[in-house]
Amino acid sequence: MATCWQGLWAYRFYLIVFFLPIFLLPLPILVPTKEACCAYTIILMALLWCTEALPLAVTAFLPVIMFPMMGIMTASTVSLEYLKDTNILFIGGMMVALAVETWNLHKRIALRVLLIIGVRPALLILGFMLVTAFLSMWISNTATTAMMLPIAHAVLEQLHKMPTDRDVEEGRHNPAFELQEQKEETKLDEKDNKQDCPALPTPSESKIQQNKEQLRFSQGLSLCVCYSASIGGVATLTGTTPNLVLQGQVNSIFPRNGNVVNFASWFGFAFPAMIILLLLSWVWLQILFLGFDFRKNFGLGEQSKNQERAAFEVIRREHKLLGPINFAEKAVTFLFVLLVVLWFTREPGFFTGWGNLAFSDENGKSMTSDGTVAILIAVIMFIVPSKIPGLTQKPGNPGKLKAPPALLTWDIVKKKMPWNIVILLGGGFALAKGSEESGLSKWLGDKLTPLESVPPAAIAFIICLLIAVFTECTSNVATTTLFLPILASMSQAICIHPLYVMLPCTLASSLAFMLPVATPPNAIAFSFGGLRVTDMARAGFMLNIIGVLVITLAINSWSIPMFDLHSFPSWAQSNTTGLCGVSQANVTTSSP
Q1: pTM for the whole thing?
Q2: How many CB atoms lie within 10 A of CB 546?
Q3: Residue 237 pLDDT more than 50?
């Protein structure tokens, strides 16, 4: 019997792929409508994404097969959804990020900031969180975590070495890292000596206590890196894939939205939320792993500057190994800064951008997009040489001259570009388009009409909680891909601004803090050892709650004037059959 169960478990993915479509077949057979056929496809893909019986990207191809065969859309129409402007933005942004990684510019920035902030326990955690969050705004969360964790553990290894007399003299012993130890012994006067004093800890007990403190600090530092990578990614449109899913879904479902979600508008909304969440996370992790003795955590005890020098040694050595900044790093830095400036100034909304001035259509709208800018900078990186132009000798062949490689080469792109995400994005856009063409969106919106009596703030809060739980066991990209079209239909049915429910869903999909399998950064941190699932769940549970509260604050405060969330927009009204009033019921500005 045990062998039978083991066999079923070993072949579970094959069984799921085979039996799941058959199990769901009664839906399109008993209800032979386009809406039911589209619902069949969406439910099938949702379950395959949740179980990961097939690779996520392979499941994303199902609309190309299902929609034409079910008479929902033609194959050519479905295929067009797989390479939209949002996909181009992702490809261009990733190319620039790959150039930054190739020339170790991100590592130089990280080490430099850590040298500036210092290595006192609380400040060290804050330093790693700030650096990781900043880098994950521009390069992938996974790559950021994979780079920062080895640096963190190298610093910990140096700090946890047993000090010798020479170490103390040379400053290689930092008392600030003896976390939450017994209070320093005070001198006893003659009267106290006559009284019975409690026994002091034996050296073995002190050693055990110190090892526990070092383990807690190691756990806290590992978690702070992976958590801040997920938190930092929400700040920019290209920082994490769910943000791009939102932009693509809004443009697909509401084609007349006037580019309401662009790099500048998203940054203005998400960056303050990221900063608040990051700082609150730092406070929580400090309390959880370092304790409440903030004076000790900040290393404010009596100690000389020489005693802190050893803590900088490993960071300074790693920074020194990078050598002086070279031409390639300078060129990549310049192009990267140029990219960010062009993104912010293309169509900012509060003043006329260069896109409106130089490349506008007959209506004055910019014909360029954020994807245009990203691809432009990426192409330039393929052109600019990595060394000051000039001919160099080819290694091993002094007689043959060789030009230096470009800042970015196609070999690097082929090896490191996550093409599966491009396909996954396209699959989500195809689902949204199929829901609209089949009438499923309208049907679903009609069924959600009773929610009109629920306060909008309560709806947003419940959505945050639901998505934060769902994303713990499902890919954040799949989560947003499945829920955003449903929320768009709901917003049209109850006449609230679509972004009022779609923005919280997108941000909450990045609150995957509790399980190692929730996100790649969590898995990387877990693989370094020293962490149990209970440690991550205990820290992540409170972070989920903090994240939901911060998102609720953001959507009910500064986002309202930014996106005009107090009224139902005309671009969303044009997609509905029923007419919503020009003014929506006032959105409460207080948290539920």
Answers
A1: 0.77
A2: 18
A3: yes
